[in-house]
Specification:
Elements: E1 2-8, E2 16-22, E3 29-39, H1 41-48, E4 58-59, E5 63-71, E6 83-86, H2 96-99, H3 110-114, E7 125-127, E8 130-131, E9 133-134, E10 144-148, E11 152-155, H4 161-164, H5 170-181, E12 189-193, H6 197-208, E13 213-218, H7 221-230, E14 234-237, H8 242-249, E15 257-260, H9 265-273, E16 281-284, H10 298-302, E17 306-309, H11 317-329, E18 339-344, H12 348-356, E19 362-366
Parallel strand pairs: 4-9, 12-13, 12-15, 13-14, 15-16, 16-17, 18-19
Antiparallel strand pairs: 1-2, 1-4, 2-7, 3-5, 3-10, 3-19, 5-6, 6-11, 7-8
The structure holds nicotinamide-adenine-dinucleotide and zinc ion (2 copies).
One zinc ion binds near residues 97, 98 and 108.
Length: about 375
């Protein structure tokens, strides 16, 4: 079939919305009609050429939500009409990691996915017979996408898809960091560094876990106001004195749980140092630049602080994204404040500009309308 898609032709250049070809799903694959897709920093980072593992031409986009149109041979997990959220972090359910409750890092399709291929090593996307690669195994800046069935979470049909798409990436990453990686205990004190969508999700996750005190640290007053809306009990402008302030607020001990959601290694260090002696757990969700390292004074670890990394919030996508969407439907997660702009696919580059200007948290592309709503 032919469809419109935003193609990364050349690094550092705007994406080009154009007609491309999409082949029908092969065995184990599913054709999805996209309804909505978030525009994320990761798309912009790859488009800029700064990501050393990027490739072109490719159809970008990885925060998609839509409806299953058709299924390939042997697909058992989904059927046409199902509402789905795309998973750049899939869940095969069978590999040694999927069988362990300790991690969400599915091993099934990693290598081909990193090359921009579907699991059989080929692409369904092409133009004039030349293959176009699938970004993050998702390629959702397009009217349709073909994905492996293990890379789709089947969510409630009651969830509006332009809200559900937020659960495809950073919102679940933040929520999951608190709920599944750190497993925050009721009554705890938590500090979240960064109030982008990951940090705001972590604030909401701490609240859902019953934390008593949730401190959010950012450089932007506007973002800290959003953090208060998600359940932060205290907010703070970040700086060199942040750790001292946290220690002051906690009787000199530090917080039970800290979360880092900035990607800045100096802030990661602060998050470790703000964690409580004895049992403080620092969860690092931010992605640092290639080659950067995190400095930790070993004594902090000997005296009982722990550090954990969290990819996609430790969320096992097919099982737990639907659960998070259900909590949204139950009124436990307020996603409205995250959506700042509605765009048509043709305006995808404007989504990047808005992100660069830190204007709002998320732009959402709508595929069923020709213009912004
Ligand atoms: N672990 C994962 O699976 C995963 C998934 C998605 C994103 N991420 C990473 O999470 C991080 C956050 O993503 P985001 O979308 O929320 O980013 P964002 O850029 O929207 O937010 C980062 C926030 O950090 C704040 N900040 C900057 N310096 C600070 C300081 N010194 N103290 C406190 N706050 C400071 C900024 O003001 C900004 O609001 C990024 O590094 C991103 O790459 C990780
Ligand atoms: Zn993303
Ligand atoms: Zn697996």
């Amino acid at each position: 079939m032919r469809m419109r898609a935003a193609v990364l032709e050349e690094f550092g250049q705007p994406l080009e919305v154009q007609e491309v070809d999409l082949e029908a799903p092969h065995a184990g694959e599913v054709l999805v009609r996209l309804v909505a897709c978030g525009v994320c920093h990761t798309d912009m980072y790859t488009a800029s050429g700064a990501d050393p593992s990027g490739y072109a031409p490719a159809v970008l986009g990885h925060e998609g939500a839509g409806v299953v149109e058709a299924i390939g041979e042997g697909v058992t997990l989904l059927e046409p009409g199902d509402h789905v959220v795309t998973l750049f972090s899939p869940q095969c359910g069978e590999c040694v990691h999927c069988r362990s409750p300790k991690t969400n890092l599915c091993l099934a399709i990693r290598e081909e996915q990193n090359r921009g291929h579907l699991p059989d090593g080929t692409t369904r996307l092409s133009r004039g017979g030349e293959p176009i690669r699938h970004f993050m195994g998702t390629s959702t800046f397009a009217e349709y996408a073909v994905l492996p069935e293990i890379a789709l979470a089947s969510v409630s049909r009651e969830a509006p898809l332009d809200r559900a798409c937020l659960f495809a990436c950073r919102l679940s990453t933040g929520l999951g960091a608190a709920m599944f990686t750190a497993r925050v205990e009721p009554g705890s004190t938590c500090v979240v560094f960064g109030a982008g969508m990951v940090g705001l999700g972590a604030v909401a996750g701490c609240r859902l876990q019953g934390a008593e005190r949730i401190v959010c640290v950012d450089l932007s007053e506007e973002r800290l106001a959003l953090a208060s809306g998600q359940g932060a009990t205290d907010v703070m402008i970040g700086g060199p004195d942040t750790v001292a302030h946290v220690l002051e607020m906690t009787g000199g001990f530090g917080a039970d749980y800290t979360f880092e959601a900035t990607g800045i290694v100096a802030v990661m260090r602060q998050a470790v140092e703000a964690a409580r002696m004895g049992w403080g757990l620092c969860t690092v969700a931010g992605v640092a630049g290639k080659g950067e390292t995190l400095d930790i004074v070993p004594r902090l670890l000997i005296t009982g602080r722990r550090v954990a990394g969290s990819s996609f919030g430790g969320v096992k996508g097919r099982d737990q994204v639907p659960q998070l969407v259900d909590r949204y439907l139950a009124g436990d997660i307020d996603v409205e404040p995250f959506i700042s702009h509605h765009l048509a696919l043709e305006e995808v580059n404007r989504g990047f500009e808005l992100m660069e200007a830190q204007d709002g948290i998320r732009s959402v592309i709508h595929f069923d309308t020709q213009g912004a709503t």
